[in-house]
Design brief:
The protein is of the alpha/beta class. The protein contains 10 helices and 23 strands. Helix 1 runs parallel beside helix 9. The mean pLDDT is 94.
């Protein structure tokens, strides 16, 4: 009897890449692991911050996805056009691909166009094109006001805009123009990374403000006047800028919505421990999900969580297909480096499933944490690609 099965992974980001790794999935060779992504190049997104300030080049933080074939992963390059969850069939580039299990790792789609004028007025910190444009703008910058903006209160990689503001300040100091610039950070949320708790949030805010960066919480942007270089907020405030760096609104991809897989909150609902969904054989990991915490906020959208979730799902699928009871569970642990510039970084780690609130500790900025992030970048690009 032919019992060959196919594990179909949609999305080649952190979670999808880990889930597709045949060593991690521990599947017998008769089974297939297929990874679908619309881009040929895997982009290591945490390093976009370094690219934006000139410490990396695009080539240094990308790897060709088709090279995964060397590890036994079949790679299909193309946009997902249609999904049939019932038959577990996906149409990519006009062709149908069926999986015995489908792992949704499509991530969050960036939607700067949902804020009038945003994409025309500034540079998107979360794209390769945007980070490259930020680097060019900073090289040409001699004086004026730089604004770092989060367009909504919830976004992936919660530390990134704060890191960006601090790295920009460090870069301008190195160029000798920091005293000719003002840096303001406007946030739609009430405090940095509030899901981690008031103590850690206050620590991060303290580091940001100690570097001469003005922090403006609870400022929800409503529109941007690109010609006048002016931001307008829902509280009636306005802010002018010479250079705008922004984190755009996020949403789930339309193809997932059209498949009827989204919960009322606009994301896929998945079991917080195993990432199974309401549809048999369908799993969802990473930024495409919304996992509620006891405190009322969702689990942050972050690569550290997606990485472990990919391991959990892959191991459980392998166990299931081997006739064993899946035993791997995600327990809510995670960590994050927080770059502060000048070769230093802080480090946060803890349990986000702790009740009543996440138990997270923040290690003060030091050179060792910066070097730890460099090591992690190199380790990731070497091991997983």
């Amino acid at each position: 009897m032919n019992d060959r099965k196919t594990a179909l992974v949609l999305g080649g980001g952190v979670g999808g890449r880990v889930a597709a790794n045949p060593h991690r999935m521990v599947l017998p060779k008769r089974h297939r692991g297929v990874l679908v992504d619309r881009e040929r190049q895997h982009l290591f997104q945490p390093s976009l911050l370094w690219l934006a300030v000139g410490d990396r080049t695009p080539a240094q933080i990308q790897r060709p996805l088709p090279e995964l074939a060397r590890r036994g992963v079949e790679v299909v390059i193309g946009a997902v056009e249609r999904i049939d969850p019932t038959t577990r069939t996906v149409r990519v580039g006009g062709q149908e691909v069926r999986g015995d299990a489908i792992i949704f790792a499509l991530g969050a789609e960036l939607a700067p166009e949902s804020i009038p004028g945003l994409s025309e007025a500034g540079h998107n910190l979360y794209t390769l094109q945007g980070a490259t444009a930020i680097e060019r703008a900073l090289r040409a910058f001699t004086s004026g006001r730089i604004v770092v903006l989060t367009a909504t209160a919830a976004y992936k990689c919660p530390a990134a805009p704060y890191e960006a503001a601090m790295l920009i300040a460090s870069t301008l100091r190195k160029r000798g123009v920091r005293d000719k610039a003002t840096i303001d950070l406007y946030s739609a949320e009430a405090g940095p990374m509030l899901v981690t708790g008031a103590v850690l949030s206050g620590q991060v805010r303290g580091v940001v403000e100690s570097l001469g960066i003005s922090y403006h919480p609870e400022h929800q942007v409503t529109q941007v006047d690109a010609a006048a270089r002016r931001l307008s907020f829902s509280n009636g405030a306005t802010a002018d800028f010479d250079l705008l760096v922004y984190v755009p609104p996020h949403r789930a991809p339309d193809v997932v919505r059209d498949a009827g897989l989204l919960a009322p909150n606009g994301w896929i609902a998945a079991d917080r421990s195993t990432f199974t969904t309401a549809v048999d054989g369908i799993y969802a990991i990473g930024d495409i999900t919304s996992i509620p915490l006891a405190m009322g906020k969702p689990l942050p959208k972050a690569g550290a969580f997606a990485h472990t979730q990919g391991e959990v799902v892959a191991d459980n699928i392998a166990s299931l297909w081997a006739g064993q009871t899946p035993a791997r569970r995600f327990e809510g642990g995670g960590e994050c480096f927080v770059e502060v510039g000048d070769g230093r970084a802080g480090f946060g780690t803890g349990n986000f499933y702790a009740e009543p609130t996440p138990q997270v500790a923040f290690r003060a900025p030091a050179r060792r944490w910066h070097w730890g992030k460099i090591w992690f970048e190199r380790h990731w690009l070497r091991r997983w690609l």
